[in-house]
Amino acid sequence: MKILTLSLLLFLTGCKFPKAVSAFYAKEVCSCLFVVGQEEEYCHEYGKQIIPIWTKEIDRKAKTVKAYGLWESTSARFISSRAGCIIEK
């Protein structure tokens, strides 16, 4: 209940914190999977935060990760092993 109340308050005040939850997860998991080459389960644990994401979509063919959390979604896309992953809208 506390998380829901905090989330609603942040959402109504226009805070960018809700977007940071999905953005952090998408970027970290994308880098873990496609740059470092770890297993999906390991990367999910690596990208976890205090406030969990609601769902995730991993497209191995397109090398993208999309995360949903706190009413926001963010995608991260693999560029190269040298450049890593970038966050997209």
Provide a concise account of the structure shown.
The chain is an alpha+beta fold and 89 residues long.
Biggest beta sheet summary: 4 strands, antiparallel
Helix content percent band: 40-55%
Radius of gyration: 13 Å
Helix/strand class: alpha+beta
The overall pLDDT average reads 85
Strand content: 25-35%
The strand line-up of the biggest sheet is 1-2-3-4
Number of domains: 1
Our count of helices gives 3
Q: How would you sum up the global shape?
A: globular
Residue runs with pLDDT of under 50 for 5 or more positions: none
Description:
This protein has 89 residues and is α+β, with helices and mostly antiparallel strands. The protein has one domain. The chain is built from 3 helices and 4 strands; from the N terminus they run H-H-H-E-E-E-E. Strands 1-2-3-4 form a 4-stranded antiparallel beta sheet, covered by helices on one side. Helix 2 (17-36) runs antiparallel to helix 3 (40-47). The longest helix is centred in the first third of the chain and has 20 residues, at 17-36. The model has no long low-confidence stretch (mean pLDDT 85).
